[in-house]
Amino acid sequence: MDKAEKYRKDIATRLRAARENAGLSQGQVARLLGYNRPTITEMEAGRRRISADELPKFAGVYGVSVSWLTDDTPEDYDPAIELAARELNKLKPEDLDKIMNLLKTLRNAGGSPK
Q: CA–CA separation, 72 vs 58, rounded Å?
């Protein structure tokens, strides 16, 4: 896989993760942006290129920045973890404390790290 293809696949992965985090289906995104649903599928699979004009539209719908969608990251990067962190950052301090306690409980109950 050449560098351009890897970059396109990375953007596709981030598009899908951001859409899922936003709680939207491919059909809903297609309607919001005026595309056909198969177009969204092709973009998320990395088979259709995304233009510079399209990136801000996706970023706006998903509540992420264009730079987040296009940023170069390490191979072991998991966009779901970054999106989870963004959501955690929006919580009230007392709710964040509850989540942290829940995570500790899960880890102590035998949950293993990735």
A: 18
Pick the closest to residue 83 from 8, 21, 1, 9 (CA basis). 21
Distances (CA, A) of 40 to 14, 44, 57, 90: 13, 6, 13, 28
For the stretch 39-66, pLDDT in tens is 999 999 999 999 999 999 999 999 888 8
Distance CA(101)–CA(98), nearest Å, equals 5
Residue 114 has pLDDT above 60, yes or no: no
CA dihedral 42, 44, 46, 49 (to 10 degrees): 70
The model's pTM is 0.65
